[in-house]
Amino acid sequence: MTAQEIRNNYLDFFAGRGHKVIPRAPLVPYNDPTTLFTGSGMQPLIPYLLGENHPEGKRLTDSQTCLRAQDIEEVGDNRHTTFFEMLGNWSLGDYFKADEIPWLFEFLVDVVGLDPNKLYVTCYIGNNSFNIPKDTESAEIWQKLFVAKSVSADFADIGSEDNGYRRGIKKGERIFFYDGSKNWWSRNGREDTTPIGDPCGPDTEVFYEFENIEHNPKWGDKCHPNCDCGRFVEIANSVFMAYKRTTAGFEPLAKPNVDFGGGLERIAVAAINDPDVFKISLLAPIISKLEEISKKNYDSHTESMRVITDHLRAATFLAVDGVRPSNKEQGYVMRRLIRRAIRFAFELGIEQNFLPEIVPVIADIYQEDFPEVAASRSEVTEVLVKEEKVFRQTLRKGLNEFNKLAENKLTGADIFKLYDTYGFPVELSFEEAYKRSIEVDQTAKSDFEKLMEAQRSRSQTAAKGTFKGGLGGDSLQHKKYHTATHLMYQALRIVLGDHVVQRGSNITEERLRFDFSHPEKVTPEQLKQVEDIVNEQIKKDLKVSFKEYPTPEALAMGALGQFGDRYGDTVKVYKMIAENEEQPFSFEICGGPHVDHTAQLAEGNKAFKIIKEEASSAGVRRIKAVLA
User: Fold this and answer.
1) Chain centroid to CA 527: how far?
2) pLDDT per residue as tens digits for the range 320-329
3) pLDDT in tens, 336-380
4) pTM value?
5) For residue 182, which phi and psi values (nearest 5 degrees)?
6) Cα(91)–Cα(255) distance, integer angstroms
7) DSSP H or E segment with residue 527
8) What is the per-residue DSSP string for 316-371?
9) Hey, what domains does the chain have and what are their CATH numbers?
10) Measured between alpha carbons, how far is 213 from 207 in angstroms, rounded to an integer?
């Protein structure tokens, strides 16, 4: 079964069990200040897992595209990718373990066709200090399912990961109990770090065993399901949000939720029984095209082809969702992905523009299942090809800088500067030095690695609060800025024209940031007009309310949306209207949160003020504003 077939069969499977198929959310989260990208399948569903009613009901399913930029340095092995899809199904206070686990088992074994003898399961061992019981209910359901397939399924208490490496797996064991570091879900991990007020609960995970992979002792003495050696790969995870953290401990939720996530690519590698994710149907055609262009073989140039394939797939979907290469935030990550791909292409001997041949292959893979890929195909290709041309010019500048730095001897610091500032491939520095008989410092390579490691440490430190995602954004101040964003959006369209379309936003406790399509710098006079319009609407004390509409009806009524968003059959539309006026000032598709009246934005004698206007990327401007 191909990955495309797995995705479509999964959605059909859960649609047949009362789930509404909802569209994927864009890779750039809407009004989430805690993360640059949608990094998990559940992230867009957080408001509904917290109790808000979803317009499509209590049973939902989707395939959510995700991007984790912190994994960029890991790409090159057989399983890491920055871009991936998460198959998801959710119960919002409806069904629970007795339905979820049998459905998951049926899908993996009977629909996808995985051998149940290669599946292993983990469950939560409990925590006496918090009076949270062992999840024997899930384990017993799993055991019955395995036994029905004539598969032995004994229980084993593991506890910590270290215990797993010491103990290993005994014959007949199939269901393993781990502690909160492995089988407890909360926003911050273990039970004791779960934030007060948050939903949380045990999870049960499914692992697939690749029997042809020998355990690597560097990870520990013995192998076990949570081992990192690659023999076992997690393919699915059902979270049972059954509790709420309180100051006194944990209390049961009145209506617990189910949050399931299954990695499409990982299920696909299990389906072909090959641990190399780059051999699945979503990635193999890109590899084949690289072999054709480079006249090189995947087996002998594995890492380079993997990096190029992953990075260009991720960059393509970022472009589909409206991101453009730049030196800031999402645009910077996109630029880095493209440029890393081009650098690795040098290792394949590809020195000419090759993205015009690769991007269409990626579009072909996805356009049937994601119509937005087909709709933006030519524009996306143009964006990525333009960036390639710019970078190849940058490489030429790097060569000029190389000439200056390498007049006497090439050092590790020189190589790092060329790499970090000019994107000049490390290997190219050594090759150029060899070609020109330039002396290379004996410690150049180790000095370069030390500088790179220091940079990674800085990046990881900075990323801790940037990529984690979160449940924030519902304070009164956040609601005020969210409401102000709606007012400013409409004011910009009044002042600049209807071509203004939202390209992204980011809201914190201190300010709002708004990206929008516009071909030139907004003049000071125009910014003042926008400010005046927004403050006028604040003084009018517009009433803020929402109503759910069928999507075609909402769009036909003129409701504004965000570029790159796809909607289900029903959407929530927020209206801001003055008491004696017939037409709303703002009418926009949005999930919230907002204040009830715009006059709340002026509390404390505050007014709306634009503090900065700048370019975000080509054809996209960015405004930052405050209530002060």
Assistant:
1) 33
2) 998 898 877 8
3) 899 889 888 988 888 889 999 999 999 999 999 999 999 899 999
4) 0.76
5) -120, -40
6) 10
7) helix 524-539
8) HHHHHTT----SSHHHHHHHHHHHHHHHHHHHTT--S--HHHHHHHHHHHHTTT-H
9) 3-276 (3.30.930.10), 476-627 (3.30.980.10)
10) 14
